[in-house]
Amino acid sequence: MSNTTLMMIKPDAVENGHIGNILQKILSSGFQIKALKLTQLSLNDAKRFYEIHKERAFFNDLVSFMSRGPIVVAVLKKKDAVNSFRNLIGSTDPSEAAEGTIRKLYATSIGENAVHGSDSDENAEIESSFHFAGRERF
Ligand code: IDP
Ligand code: MG
Questions:
Q1: Which of 16, 28, 39, 87 is the most exposed place for a label (fewest CB within 10 A)?
Q2: Which domains does the chain have, with CATH numbers?
């Protein structure tokens, strides 16, 4: 169990004006922000980030969606951050996400589901290094 995770507010949620509400919910749930930026992935960046899914039927849709507009990326700190944040965001498919979760509140579909959260401590570290130089993480 580690104490940091990597989150992204995806292009759909940025387009729909939810940056502030999502960050507010994250902070009020006890996460500390250790790094934060607005950025945009190139198609190639998105392919690298989601390489683990490259054989999946939805891969092309996923990488084109994730590179179509700005995203907000943050490193978050809390006890058991990976699991705690996955609980806060809810199921991948918003129709299955629990009441009050970020995806229930702000996602529009299984593909355009508002937020990303790392699925393991190892991936949290890989994904944090993907997005932030060491001097940007506090
Ligand atoms: P997760 O984001 O809840 O960890 P993953 O299975 O790791 O879900 O999938 C990564 C992302 O790929 C999802 O967040 C979603 O944007 C997209 N995705 C996953 N499954 C589907 C699907 O069945 N159809 C379309 N997009 C999908
Ligand atoms: Mg995942």
A1: 28
A2: 4-136 (3.30.70.141)
- Gap from CA of 135 to ligand 1 centroid (Å): 30
Q: Is the CB of 111 under 6 A from ligand 1?
A: yes
Residue to substitute in 54, 58, 112 for testing ligand 1 pocket (most ligand atoms within 8 angstroms of CB): 58
To the query of whether residue 18 is one of the catalytic residues in this protein, the response is: no
Whole-model pTM: value is 0.98
What confidence tier does 107 reach under pLDDT thresholds 50, 70, 90? very high
> Could you tell me the CA-to-CA distances from 127 to 13, 17, 90, 119, 123 in Å, in that order?
20, 24, 20, 10, 6
Specify the pLDDT at position 1.
67
